[in-house]
Amino acid sequence: MNNRQDERRQFFRIDDSLSLSYRQIPAERLSAAIENLENALDRDFTVVSSLAAVSQEMQGTLHKIEASRPEIAAYLKSLDKKIDILGRALLAQTTELLNQPAQEVNISATGVSFLVPEDIPVGAVLELKMLLMPSYAGILSFVEVLGCDPVASPAGQPASYNLRTTFMHIRDRDRDLLIQHVVQRQSAQIRRARQGAEQGKPG
Fold first, then answer.
1. Is the C-alpha dihedral spanning 47, 50, 51, 52 positive or negative?
2. For residue 159, what is the DSSP state?
3. What is the pTM (predicted TM-score) of this model?
4. What is the rounded CA–CA span in Å between residue 74 and residue 80?
5. Which of 168, 179, 141, 171 has its CA nearest to residue 50?
6. What is the per-residue pLDDT for 191?
7. Residues 164, 121: Cα–Cα separation, whole Å
8. What is the pLDDT of residue 120?
9. Are 122 and 34 in contact (CB under 8 A)?
10. Does residue 16 contact residue 107 with C-beta atoms inside 8 Å?
11. H-helix or E-strand containing 203?
12. Which pLDDT score, from 0 to 100, does residue 117 have?
């Protein structure tokens, strides 16, 4: 992927559905939190995304092996699936996000917006956990609030706000996974739209 393609993909935005949670990080704790994310061993929540990043790095080598030794490539793919199953099992035991309903978001590699029940000040920094589906990749990042706009709610319903954020710190491999997720989702949406258009044509 060249730089121009990478920049273009970072600005793809899609509507998606995923599980997430957030908490505000005080300014004095931000540097330590970022350092911990970069230098600490992978947390249980991010283990699947880390495994996915390693698998992505192995693709070029695996294609070469597949061309000359397909039986070895098939064996390596089976091992990769086993490791992925173990990672998902660990994730299921350690994160609360699997047990909460997914919510609608608008997301790109540069930021994400979603509904929240509280007014969060512009400039606030949040630790954001996102669980991408169907890969079960957990991404932990830090985002800055760009805006928090009231949303009209039906009478008697709790107030809600559209929170708009930009990634202020996300690991490179997690951003790559996010770009891949967004591109795949966008491609699937385009295919569904084309299929719908084809089905809607008169026979």
1. positive
2. P
3. 0.71
4. 10
5. 171
6. 85
7. 11
8. 96
9. no
10. yes
11. none
12. 94
CB-count burial class (<10 Å; 0-12, 13-18, 19+) for 183 = middle
Q: Are 125 and 82 in contact (CB under 8 A)?
A: no
Q: Which residues of 121-156 are buried (b: 16+ CB within 10 A; e: fewer)?
A: eeebbbbbbbbbeebbbbbbbbbbbeebeeeeeeee
CA neighbours closer than 13 Å in the CB half-sphere of residue 26: 2
Six-digit token string for 112: 């994400």
Q: How far is it, in rounded angstroms, from Cα 13 to Cα 49?
A: 21
Contacts of residue 122, defined as CB under 8 A and 6 or more positions apart, other chains included, come to: 145, 146, 147, 148
Contact between 161 and 118 under an 8 Å Cβ cutoff? The reply is yes
Could you say which residues of the chain have pLDDT below 50?
1, 41-42
- C-alpha angle 24-103-192 in degrees, rounded to nearest 5: 140
pLDDT for 26:
93
- Contact in structure between 173 and 53 (CB atoms under 8 Å): yes
C-alpha–C-alpha distance, residues 193 and 191, integer Å: 5
Measured CA distances, 159 to 15, 100, 106, 145, 152 (Å): 22, 20, 20, 19, 8
Query: For residues 88 and 99, what is the distance between their CA atoms, to the nearest angstrom?
Result: 14
Estimate the share of the chain in helix, then strand, then coil, as percent rounded to the nearest 5.
50, 25, 20
Question: Residues with Cβ < 8 Å from 67, sequence gap 6 or more?
Answer: none
